[in-house]
Design goal:
Shape: globular
Strand content: 15-25%
CATH topology: Glutamine Phosphoribosylpyrophosphate, subunit 1, domain 1
Distance between the termini: 65 Å
CATH superfamily: Aminohydrolase, N-terminal nucleophile (Ntn) domain
Number of domains: 1
Number of helices: 6
Helix content: 40-55%
CATH class: Alpha Beta
Radius of gyration: 21 Å
Order of helices and strands: HEEEEHHEEEEHHEEH
Structural class: alpha+beta
């Protein structure tokens, strides 16, 4: 019987495999991939965060599922992966934001907060007796009129994006962003793009019960979570636009068939 290739190397976070891998970190990434889809889009007018709150039972109160969090007045976060781990990360981020405000009498920079959080994530990949956080965050905010959007990783790595997604539907959502993202999007267009990406990434019908959207406007620099009525209006708008595009495509196909005849 041949021994497993990773036998022994995944028993502790401090042990590298012969090819330089930390299996516990990779397992944590798998936990994120199994989570629901979360979206972040940056545009000149602000930041849009959208999350899919997929529920496994009709008995679950959707309002009890938290995937969007307000970190500070000007910063928000969308999470995917283990909910409890995400909650712990959000609480740490909130504390760091308040420490900066008390110490320096000014709001924390978005990139500084993201780096501080990732410094803590990295510590949990280098010490025995702990495990990496099985959660990733999309951190977005506005500081001094500049919009920033970051994605964290369980390893502590940090990447800035124009538009990104985490969770089970990441690949499908990123394909939509690659095709349709433009740097001159308005807030409404960014919300529509985020909803289109979530629709492509999820298999169930999206409603205001399982979708949440938050925006941080560049104008006032404040985090604002949309109401159910506002989310419903955006969903209906996107559905109408998608139906119109489908009809146009069908008309083009029909005209091509006539030309062939």
């Amino acid at each position: 019987m041949q021994p497993l290739q990773n036998a022994g190397y995944d028993r502790a976070i401090t042990v590298f495999s012969p090819d330089g891998r930390l299996f516990q970190v990779e397992y944590a990434r798998e936990a994120v991939k199994r989570g629901t889809t979360s979206i972040g889009v940056k545009c000149p007018d602000g930041i849009v965060l959208a999350v899919d709150k997929r529920t496994t039972s009709t008995l679950v109160e959707s309002t009890s599922i938290e995937k969007l969090f307000k970190i500070d007045e000007h910063i928000g976060a969308a999470t995917s992966g283990l909910v409890a781990d995400a909650r712990a990360l959000v609480e740490r981020a909130r504390v760091e934001a308040q420490i900066n405000k008390i110490t320096y009498s000014e709001p924390i920079r978005v990139d500084s907060l993201a780096k501080k959080l990732c410094d803590m994530l990295q510590l949990y990949t280098q010490n025995g007796g702990v495990r990496p956080f099985g959660s990733a965050l999309i951190i977005g905010g506005v500081y001094n009129g500049v919009c920033k959007l970051f994605e964290t990783d369980p390893s502590g790595a940090l990447i800035e994006y124009k538009a990104t997604a985490i969770g089970s539907g990441r690949s499908a959502a990123m394909d939509i962003f690659e095709e349709q993202y433009k740097e001159d999007l308005s807030i409404d267009d960014a919300i529509a793009l985020a909803l289109t990406a979530i629709n492509e990434a999820t298999e169930h019908e999206n409603t205001s019960d399982n979708l949440e959207i938050a925006i941080i406007n560049k104008e006032d620099g404040e985090y604002n979570k949309l109401s159910k009525e506002e989310v419903t209006a955006y969903i209906e708008k996107v559905l109408v636009e998608d139906e119109a595009e489908d009809e146009e495509e069908e008309e083009v196909d029909d005209s091509d068939d006539i030309d062939d005849e």
